[in-house]
């Protein structure tokens, strides 16, 4: 049995968390290219979010920017209420918001742990829970989690980040089984090294060392990750669910 979308793909609404920059911004632009309704979520980067919104509107998309602390259940529910009032409840949710943490586990504080887990893992849980009910009712929807290669293989000095993304991968697999009978797919995109602000903390020699380990010989662009997210959102991708797909240039096979 196949589940056809109740709304044509180009008329659907996509919510992208953390969409004011980097991969999230690239995802917003990719969906805007087909004229979809775009909800750009951000926490504090108001001007950056508006800049991405303007770029999307130039492509013919209807765009709404919303601010919310992804760690707060109350703020997520307020965001949901706003989208419902604007008739922009998402058919597609992209849980992209995330933060990294670099350092030895022995130096990690409890506050560090809570913040990384809350943004990367709890935030995805809260957003998914808030928006999944209409998808289940429609018998159609897409939930796409932006994870990381480190959630698959782990990384030295990135134990917190690796743990949070590993949890997101397990969340993806388990929820996919729960929602599959309702025609809702749940997948994760787990990129390798991408040219974003998260790499800004690395020195040039460190970037060169990382690049030398990647068979493709370069870092990924945010647009390449966005293309995979877009593919997983298509109606034709309805038989793909519970998958952790890692675009990493052959770094991890």
TrEMBL record:
Lineage top rank: taxon: Bacteria
UniProt record, GO biological process: monocarboxylic acid metabolic process
Gene Ontology molecular function: any one: 3-oxoacyl-[acyl-carrier-protein] reductase (NADPH) activity
Alphabetical UniProt keywords: Oxidoreductase
Annotated SUPFAM superfamilies: NAD(P)-binding Rossmann-fold domains
Broad enzyme group: oxidoreductase
Keyword match Oxidoreductase: yes
Residue span, Ketoreductase domain: 12-192
Enzyme Commission number, as recorded: 1.1.1.100
Similarity comment: Belongs to the short-chain dehydrogenases/reductases (SDR) family.
UniProt name for this protein: 3-oxoacyl-ACP reductase FabG
Species of provenance: Paenibacillus roseopurpureus
């Amino acid at each position: 049995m196949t589940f056809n979308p109740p709304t044509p793909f180009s008329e659907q609404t996509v919510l992208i968390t953390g969409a004011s920059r980097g991969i999230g911004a690239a995802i917003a632009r990719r969906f805007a290219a087909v004229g979809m309704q775009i909800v750009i979520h951000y926490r504090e980067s108001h001007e950056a979010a508006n800049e991405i919104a303007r770029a999307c509107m130039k492509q013919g998309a209807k765009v709404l920017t919303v601010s919310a602390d992804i760690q707060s259940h109350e703020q997520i529910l307020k965001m949901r209420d706003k989208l419902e009032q604007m008739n922009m409840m998402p058919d597609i949710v992209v849980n992209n918001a995330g933060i990294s943490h670099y350092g030895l586990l022995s130096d990690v504080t409890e506050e560090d742990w809570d913040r990384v887990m809350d943004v990367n893992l709890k935030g995805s849980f809260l957003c998914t829970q808030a928006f999944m009910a209409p998808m289940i009712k429609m018998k159609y929807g897409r939930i796409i989690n932006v994870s990381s290669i480190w959630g698959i293989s782990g990384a030295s000095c990135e134990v917190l980040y690796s743990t949070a993304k590993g949890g997101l991968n397990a969340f993806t697999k388990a929820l996919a089984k729960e929602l599959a009978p309702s025609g809702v797919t749940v997948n994760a995109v787990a990129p390798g090294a991408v040219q974003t602000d998260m790499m800004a903390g690395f020195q040039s020699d460190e970037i060169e060392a990382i690049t030398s380990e990647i068979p493709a010989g370069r870092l990924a662009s945010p647009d390449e990750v966005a293309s995979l997210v877009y593919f997983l959102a298509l109606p034709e991708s309805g038989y793909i669910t519970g998958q952790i797909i890692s675009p990493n240039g052959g770094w991890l096979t």
